[in-house]
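Much of what follows relies on a compact textual record of a protein's fold. A record is reproduced here so that you can trace the correspondence yourselves:

. . .
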Amino acid sequence: MTNLRSVFRADKLIFAFFGFLVAIMGNLLSDYLPQLGRPAVILFLFLLAMVGFVFLLFKARGQRLRVVINRFVTLRDPEERRREARRGLIVFVSLYNPSHTSKAKGLTAQEKQEAAKSLNYETLDLENSNLQPAIEAVFAHASRLEHCWLVSTTATGEGAGSSLAYASVLARYLTKVKGTQCQFYGTSDSRYAVSLDEDSAVTTKTRDLIRHIFDEAAGLGLGKKDLVADFTGCPKGMTLGLILACLSNARDIQFMGTHYNDLAQPVGGLYPVLFDFGVEASPD
């Protein structure tokens, strides 16, 4: 009974009928093509295409796509970072907030904005702020990095802040202090910033922006494995948008990890955790 079921599966019957139809119509065309005329030939080709589409649809129903993790690697020591460094990197720029031990903790909102505008990274004490993960994410790839996209945020609501204002000072710090030699994008360009004014649209906007960056990267000669996207920082809606864009293109992603003590407090330095994703078809 099992063998009979496999023989008479709908997709196999359609495929057999499709082949039979092609053979019959091929013979007819060879004998009567001059008499059929152009409209009849066009109609036949249309019907042929429709049968083929139905067949592919049945085949697709028997398959499902799934995301697989081919491998993941932690970039803790210099050798791992040199081996896994990428030519391109996408990184989120969080809205600047100094840590409680930072010398910038007492700055007013206006003083922070003025320091960012004047590219005064010393006043902002960036290493002791929530921008440290972005700094470490970029520096981990510095040995090969050629292009870096800084994806920030904008907002127009009362009391809302914009991380776009801190993208330029972050790039200056990475260049002057950390010695990163690469081309930065998004330092003063709102095209690389996601508006947070509509919560429901943040994920979609981020996904579309990341896809646009993928197209730019391809135009710069970067292949899929030359680029990695870091989803550390920024609102969860942006994180989801970045991951969705990467999954649909089988792109590699990373986040900044660390160790925690028994009080759930981070200890030690930050290090990237890089995931190599893939998409494969499997029986439903």
Observations:
- DSSP finds ten helices and eight strands in the chain.
- Residues 10-36 form the longest helix (27 residues).
